[in-house]
Amino acid sequence: ECWERLIHEAVGPTREARIDGARNAFYRGFVAEAVGRYYASTDILDASGRHHRGLLSADDMARWAAPVEAPLGVDYQGHRLLKCGPWSQGPTFLQLLALLDGIDLAAMDPFGAEFAHTLVEAFKLVFADREAYYGDPDFVQVPLGTLLSRAYNDERRALIGETASMDLRPGAVPGLAAQVERALAQAARLAAPPAEAAGVGEPTVGRLGAVGGDTCHVDVIDRWGNMVSATPSGGWLQSSPVVPGLGFPLSTRAQMFWTVPGLPNSVAPRKRPRTTLSPSLVLRDGKAWMSFGTPGGEQQDQWQPIMLLHMLHHGLSIQQAIDAPSFHTEHWNSSFWP
Fold first, then answer.
1. Global model pTM greater than 0.90
2. Are 43 and 51 in contact, with CB atoms under 8 Å apart?
């Protein structure tokens, strides 16, 4: 019924006008009104084990519109990788390629210990930077110019040694030392989650016996070669009740925020949370070549690079690269804990 009504209200002389009509009905029409009524009047069970009123209002929805942003990109081995901005973890993939540029991965056994060790130590470095610097760039200064620069990555590459590092080691960016110290202090305060804790890593509220869940990803390539890569995961469906009259739950991605102030990903009004969602596009000779992505939270920008590097350095086909054994590290604080 909701879907049919959106289609009915998507009227106009052009395709763009009809899309705008549907968006207006959603964000400034009957959908926003239903959401506002529900959260203003309903006590909802959440991950605390108690019931609370929601905070989202129809006015909040009316003030927002989906932006169009230029992607971030780096050149690597004759290809250009495109990613979303630092409100996602996507730039970690870009940092990783900049960090690995200059290491002879092609000479390594693609399934050997040296390749795995090199990648894991590189993952630790770029995700440490994610913790120290990433957030909504409309609200915080994210020094991507430095993080993706040759000089910065030449210096960071020297930290990849023959033995594993046990430390969280973000890089130093002039003017942001205090922010890095706050991020490291917060990481140090977090105790490892107890093994018996239910749903650790998945802050869900079990409904009708449902627990667990995972991200979804979709890639589409049409007959003209247009490519879409999307990771449209709103969070845990069973944690967010269905809004009456609409037939769908809302996103729970605000779980990604820190409530501790002074961090780049600290919660603020109208701010985007730093999500783990990370679709990918690759250009070859300036033309669309591949779109890809994966579920997996923190693993998204570990499994994806392994697949791409196997293709670029070891001659694997896309199917072989997908089927090949993969790996990841959980060295840093998970975005889902606490």
1. yes
2. yes
